[in-house]
Amino acid sequence: YESFLSFSSFLSQRKEQTLTLDSKFSLLSAVAKEDMVVIEQEPEPEEKESPSSPSSSSVQNESFRVPEGSEDGGGSDEDSFEDALTQDQLNERSLNQANDAKADGNRLFGAGQYSDALLQYELALQIASEVPSSEEVRSMCHANRAVCFFKLGRYDDAIRESSKALELNPSYVKALLRRGEAHEKLEHYEEAISDMKKIIEIDPSSDQARRTIMRLEPLAAE
Question: pLDDT tens across 156-178, in order?
Fold first, then answer.
């Protein structure tokens, strides 16, 4: 019987110890749960390009961008050469247009339409006025206008246009001849003789100039 009581007492003590341990474990678990902090992982924010910062592709393109001017950054000679070519092409086009207008004037002159021919020669002069190498075509247009004015009986205008042609080409024999003839029409015999003598200086074989001098000298002496 005493053994049974001792065994019962032993079981009772074990039960109390177990309950004590369970209580302590429960208490620790509760404390642990209260102290535990759950950290939720936030989603990473989407990358947004800054308005002021270029994208990687634009940065790459920027790094390979060739500076204005030339590939080595100092091609002023090449730029000038290209500009010169462009200007030459523009000059050539203007000169061709001026020659076309002059050709139209020649056709009108051949048809006896002197007033219309004057307009075409004037158009050619306007087109060629800005072309540096247009002295020849401009002098021819002024000389042709002088002929038109001469045909229309406008001798003062013929003299003026002939003089403009001679300013561009002082050895232009036809302009000298036309101006001399206009002076003769206005009875400016001395001026006409002077122009004929200039023609002979340029072209000693000009029989027309010699005959005109012989004819006008008596009239100038009166």
Answer: 999 999 999 999 999 999 999 99
Which domains, ranges and CATH numbers included, belong to the chain?
94-221 (1.25.40.10)
Structure tokens given for 140: 């021819």
Please tell me what DSSP assigns to residue 73: S
Q: At what angle do helices 155-168 and 135-151 cross, to 10 degrees?
A: 170
Radius of gyration for the alpha carbons in the chain, expressed in angstroms and rounded: 54
Q: How far apart are CA 74 and CA 68, in angstroms?
A: 9
pTM of the model: 0.62
State the DSSP string of 9-24: HHHHHHHHHHHHHHHH
Give the amino acid at 63. S
Residue 161: partners with Cβ closer than 8 Å, 6 or more residues away:
142, 143, 145, 146, 149
